[in-house]
Fold:
Amino acid sequence: MIAARLPTLANVAEHLRDDEIHVWRLDYHPRDGRGPLRAVLGAYLGLPADQVALADGTHGRPSLAGGHDPSLDFNWSHSGVHALVAVGRHIAPGIDLECLRPHPRALAIAERYFSAEEAAALLALPPAARSAAFLELWTAKEAVLKALGRGLAFGLDRLSIAGTAECPSLLRLEGDNAAAWQLRRLPIAPELVAALAWRGGERNIRFGTLASRG
Structure:
């Protein structure tokens, strides 16, 4: 993986390469709905934001509606006032973002919904470290499920994450070859936990931040 900073959206959208994934960080306000997402995608499609048509899949994953560039795919996630948008060609990226915060029930949730190996790993940690580790597992699982086009109903215990906090890996994915997947931790900010997943070969990840509109 090569992480690089992106210049402004307008300067790079038309140059998205097949061996890249662009990840944009932007402010999020619920009142804006999917407007900021459409603005990002419009830059890649060469369209005004209000002409970007989205469709929701069976399990809620948004996608570009028919008529748009079929090679382009995306995913987005928001938490608090922050959002991330991942854009790539010829792959279906999955991205998940959470604000770092205490989770007093992290172990209980993991023991009920995660794999036995993941729950055991959390149990082995000091209590003070469990909240961050729980969110690292959660975002990694969500990123894979979103790339897969499935929701939480798929079952969080049907996939297992191993490795370190900085370098997670998909150890098991029921019904699929886990080795065919890429999973990356995104170093966005100390107060944010984020992960990116896709099925396919290595790609260069390029980061950018869109200026706040105030």
